[in-house]
Amino acid sequence: MSPDSAPAPAPAPAYVIDPTGGCPHALNARLRARGAVADVVLPGGVPAAVVLGHEALKEFLGHPDAAKDARHFSALHDGTIAPDWPLRVFANAQGMHTADGADHRRLRALVGNAFTARQVERLRPRVEELTAELLDDLARAAAEAPDGVVDLRSRFALPLPMGVICELLGVDPEHRGRLHHLSHTVIIATDTTPAEVVAAVRELVELMGTIAAARRASPGEDLTSALIAAREGDGDRLSEAELIGTMRLMLVAGHETTLNLIGNAVRALCAHRDQLALVQEGKAGWSDVVDETLRWDAPVSWFPFRYAARDLTVDGSVIPRGTPVLAAYSSAGRDEAFHGPDADRFDVTRPAASRHLSFGHGAHYCVGAPLARLEATIALERLFTRFPDLDLAVPEPELPYLHSFIGNGVESLPVRLG
After folding, report:
1. Average pLDDT over residues 163-171
2. pLDDT above 60 (res 5)
3. In 66-123, where does DSSP find H-type helix?
4. Strand 324-328 relative to strand 46-51, pairing
């Protein structure tokens, strides 16, 4: 047989996604070695695709036929997928994150003004105040702990962004703990049962309704009150489902991702003391730490969903019409083809540190990116200024990863303040 007539190699089998998650980087590297796009099987046996390479993901995120509206998700509507499929929550939600075109622009405009660089900068004093309060609490907890160990995730990385977004939304403090638990169950944890997800979605929607009712009864200068005014006013109105969906999006995106960003940055700096020294010596900035963390250890791993509105060819791979597609932000950040042969090295002086895709690309670029940057930069600067010798209390490999293929972070972050 001549070389020209040799049979084409068999396509690689689809990767069956592990719902228990874990550190994504070794898996990403193996799949990227096959190509920038891979076939995968979602929990529940649902065929899908994941885009892994930086340039391929950038192309896909900006493609006009990579839709967010789940009407393009064929299997969702033809009876193939069970009604209680846990990932259905990503398709069924209503808001700017599941809208295209004019609908997306309408919904984004209603919240966009709250997240402009100027508006976010006005939040700086409150973020600094909350950070100082949490650092005081952290120091007290460490002093009271017999071994001096405190969980930085639950005592600092979580309550800071959660407090900021809840104040922005006008959420009373009494609801915050439950909101985090429910949003984590619905959006982040991917090893949950269908019954657990259904129950959490129901309770989360009810709780959002309770919060909206409180703001209707007593409007304030918060984002929920502004959304309700749009819901009940003239012009670009929100439906009730869009109101609840937008509130849920703001809540989840406003704290889960920043929580992971802060935690991942702390882990990276503790594991790379030379890089921490560069920042402490003024040879790099805290914003460089934030950007390099977003590239090197993105807070979101594989995010659902966009849908191929027609057969799409991305980096030579055909994604059939109707396919749900995951955006592998954690993979694109370490793509050697774009970031170079040292892509897996944490380097705060990297000149291309800002050229990551962790906030997305195109029309759906993260509206809350300025707030996340502000919170993470202040949090890290104040944390390591007050506790310059802070270090992990357990070896990095022993940290428990989130049970998620969506969120990329750890469930706890025990540290000694030094």
Report:
1. 93
2. no
3. 74-77, 88-92, 101-112, 117-121
4. parallel
Q: What is the strand order of the sheet 37-42 is part of?
A: 15-16, 37-42, 46-51, 324-328, 302-308, 66-67
Q: Give the relative orientation of helices 369-386 and 286-296 as an angle to the nearest 10 degrees.
A: 120
Give the count of domains, the chain. 1
CA dist 91 and 70 (Å) reads 5
Total-model pTM: 0.94
Is residue 229 included in any domain, yes or no?
yes
Angle (CA) 402 407 409, round 5°: 50
Number of Cβ within 10 Å of residue 367's Cβ equals: 22
Give pLDDT, residue 115: 86
User: Does residue 326 belong to any structural domain of this protein?
Assistant: yes
Strand, coil or helix: 157: helix
Kind plus residue range of the DSSP H or E element containing 66: strand 66-67
How far apart are the C-alpha atoms of 33 and 301, rounded to whole Å?
18
> Are β-strands 46-51 and 37-42 bridged in parallel, bridged antiparallel, or unpaired?
antiparallel
Average pLDDT (261-276) is 98
The CATH number of the domain holding residue 39 is: 1.10.630.10
- 321, 73 in Cβ contact below 8 A? no
Host domain of residue 364: 10-416
Report the alpha-carbon distance of residue 375 to residue 378 in Å, rounded: 5
Asked if the structure places residue 5 within a domain, the reply is no
- Amino acid identity for residue 222 in this structure: D
Within a domain: residue 23? yes
- pLDDT tens per residue across span 206-217: 999 999 999 999
The whole-number pLDDT of residue 366 equals 93
Lookup result for tokens 């009730």: 240
Cα-to-chain-centroid distance, residue 24: 14
Please list, in sequence order, all residues whose beta carbon lies within 8 angstroms of the beta carbon of residue 149, skipping any fewer than 6 positions away: 142, 393, 414, 415, 416
